[in-house]
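Example record for the data management plan.
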Amino acid sequence: MAVLEKSDPSFQALFYPKALRCPLAKRIVRAIEEHWPAYFPTRKECRGPNWRLTIRPDEPLYKPRSSSVNELNAWKMRITGTIVEGRAHYAHASWKRFFEICRKSPRLHPVVRDFKPLADFLIKEESMRHSSNGAAVGMEDFLQKQMTALLAPGSPYLFSDPQRLRFLQSRKPPFEKIQAIDLMTQLFDGPLMILAVLQRCASGSKNSCFWLDLQNHIKAVLKAPAPLAFRATWLEHAMHVANATKKSGKSCPRKWAQLLIDEKERDLAKINVKAIEVNNWLKGKKQPSVENIRRAWQAVVTAGHLPPKQAKAGQDSWLFSWMITLWLEWHFVEIAAEFKGDTFKIRRFYSRFFHYLKIDFNARTAERAGGRGTRQP
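Corresponding structural encoding:
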């Protein structure tokens, strides 16, 4: 969510609607209730003028006023079943907690059901990460527990790049190995595994025809390693699905621009302005807002004469696929920085996606995971 909000501020209105935000004057502070880490203290309730957002464990807390408690309870009722509720419970720090919140939402429950393989993988992968919970621990001991968690029976990281696995078994200093494990889980193997599981979910979805196949994303970046390759691929797909094409079959940005404008406002001047804007999207000079992505979906609905039920169900997947595209751009920038712009290494990294695509990470056959043949790219 943080990555998406930074790349496109309009996502903030989607993830955290203004009507449900807590006013800054109310001073949201963490860890007041056992199961609800947010409340509305006044300045006096919040340790005088020297208040801070975080509270030390040894610092005493004052009992909030009854009016603050009543306002908190009213706010909790308003945000029930929304993404804001998940944020209040810090669900963004735990996949397990995030999916628990989503399952309680009538709107999100069907989406989570469609992506159950992804949910299972993320929860399983999260449970294998070792944490010292802030306690003092020796580097050697910490590394051994990290290695045990990472390479446990049934761990998806047994399918990681052989070169990285050999590095963990070498005599390199523990600090370098710990850094390598962090890169494997957060930058290298972990994200590619997640994309592979996500592709399986999309392929089995009822709205898969509107999804952009993630394999197209990877093929595009293998052909021309650049962050804009992901966005251009998605936008080209959107134009084809909306039938904004020429007779030759090539995409037509101007035709697509006409579809994104309301019928009552389709005069020549506005069409020209929108056509220039669409071309700027393709060239990376400007980014489509969430509202424009939704308009693109309406163009798809109109072109495909979709029934209302299918149109409503497909809109969430359409918007989600755009979010994945933005995340892929952000991820590419980090990968390129790690490889210092070496296109050969970048291509070799992304080609492993097709290796992970052949593996069923949620299978319960842990014995197969340790086989030598499974580690080959």
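Summary line stored alongside the record: Residues 190-369 form one domain.
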